[in-house]
Design a protein that fits this description.
This protein is α/β, with parallel strands linked by helices. A hairpin with a 6-residue loop joins strand 9 and strand 10.
């Protein structure tokens, strides 16, 4: 199946996917009710399934990963607090300043390349003094988007979590692509989520659902988050139609993520073989490509050849594989990039 718009091979993100025919059928058959009243059976089924997968007491279906992360920050912090997250964290870069606007906190980016260890966190934590912001929450993003889809090593997470506990800090996992981390490591989502108080996971990244995420935690925290969700306009009505897509994705699209990882590795190989750009072997489905020159002209030239990618810096491209692109299309896109770079040189 050719992805994207107008028959283009769309590698901009794993959010560009379309529901499969089987997913649309599941959506059409979904039993629904008013979820604000707690009466949507499909939403209830999804929330119970996600809570079980992650080993937590409860889950809350939300429209987006941004809302999931912001529910966590709202629940963990008070205005004036400080939140620690890896360099380039989604909650610091791609959520429109929501943490500052909604919770009144400041985010400190720690480490490099998206991953930080306990020593780097210890150095970032400010003293408990009235003239300093209160250290309150640690956020780990796994996999890390700006880090190139990197998986946070579980031993690193464990050491960071141990320090956070000693310091009295909360722990939140931005697990938008936690499904990819589970496939890449062989660890279950439950094992990866175990150190955290709160978790957000996404169904429209990687899994191919059209919309939706979940906030997952203790029953008490989820109840508080439900109130915040309503404040933010996220109380939805007969939303089981969307929850059905997420449930279908959970049960049918998780294991196939290994195919996306293999496709990303192949794209990186073709790029390196061209000899005109560098690309680290990806750990999951995100490829970061460093170019010898400006990224924007390359993006435009690829689009003219029917391949869509994202500029992710002045000289960097991001390529993301997903359920709507085949290995053959990845090969075609990789060769198109090699051709563009050869012409540019």
């Amino acid at each position: 199946m050719t992805s994207g718009s107008a028959g283009k091979i769309d590698l901009r993100s794993d959010t560009v996917t379309k529901p499969t025919h089987a997913m649309r059928e599941a959506m059409a058959r979904a039993e629904v009710g008013d979820d604000v009243y707690g009466e949507d059976p499909t939403v209830k089924a999804l929330e119970a399934r996600v809570a079980d997968l992650l080993g937590k007491e409860a889950a809350l279906f939300v429209p987006s990963g941004t809302m999931g992360n912001q529910l966590a920050i709202l629940g963990h912090t008070r205005p004036g607090d400080e939140v620690y997250a890896g360099q380039g964290a989604h909650c610091a870069w791609y959520e429109s300043g929501a943490a500052g606007a909604l919770s009144g906190v400041q985010i400190v980016e720690v480490g490099s390349g998206g991953i930080f260890d306990a020593d780097e966190l210890a150095e970032a934590i400010k003293p408990r003094a009235y003239w300093c912001p209160n250290p309150r929450l640690v956020v780990i993003e796994n996999t890390h988007n700006r880090g190139g889809g990197k998986v946070v090593p579980h031993e690193v997470t464990s050491r960071v979590a141990e320090l956070a506990r000693r310091e009295g800090l909360g722990l939140h996992l931005d697990g938008a692509r936690l499904w990819n981390a589970a496939v890449a490591t062989g660890l279950s989502e439950k094992e990866l989520a175990a150190p955290f108080d709160t978790v957000s996971v996404c169904f429209s990244k990687g899994l191919g659902a059209p919309v939706g995420s979940a906030f997952v935690s203790s029953a008490e925290r989820v109840l508080a988050a439900k109130r915040h969700r309503k404040m933010l306009g996220g109380g939805m009505r007969q939303v089981g139609i969307l929850a059905a897509a997420a449930l279908f994705a959970l049960e049918n699209h998780r294991e196939r993520l290994s195919q996306d990882h293999a496709a990303a590795k192949r794209f990186a190989e073709i790029t390196r073989e061209s000899g005109r750009a560098t690309a680290e072997p990806p750990q999951t489905n995100v490829v970061m490509i460093d170019l010898p020159g400006a990224a924007d002209p390359v993006v435009r030239a690829l689009a003219e050849r029917g391949v869509l990618v994202s500029a992710f810096g002045p000289k960097r491209l991001r390529v993301v594989t997903h359920v709507d692109v085949t290995m053959a299309e990845v090969e075609t896109a990789g060769r198109a990039l090699a051709s563009v770079l050869a012409e540019a040189s």
